Amino acid sequence: MAGIIESSPAHTKFSRYDIRVIIKFSVILGKDASCIHKDLVTVLGENAPSIQTVRKWIKAVSEGQDDMEDEPLPSRAVTACGDANISKVLVSLSDDKRKTCEEISTETSMSRTSVEF
């Protein structure tokens, strides 16, 4: 059929970002969730997002979200294992190699978790 993209390996290499942009574009065209989901399943097959995911992104677009990138995940501060903290631990251990993590944490004002790493 003319105008329909057949599902093939070449057409299923869409990133999450690509899929979200397609959803955003479809919302602008006035398509509803079931229609958008059906289109995605036609092209992506089992790699298509669930209808719930499609609805979530439709809601985000409808509420004015322009950025289709993933939100950064919360993680440990990059400086937790930095050179400065490693030096603090080494200096603390130079006096007594049998100090506990709790003692080093108190002495260096670092969290116990950071000391353990």
UniProtKB/TrEMBL annotation:
Residues 17-58 form the Mos1 transposase HTH domain. InterPro entries: Mos1_HTH (IPR041426), Transposase-MT_Hybrid (IPR052709). PANTHER family: MARINER MOS1 TRANSPOSASE-LIKE PROTEIN (PTHR46060). This is Transposase. It comes from Elysia marginata.
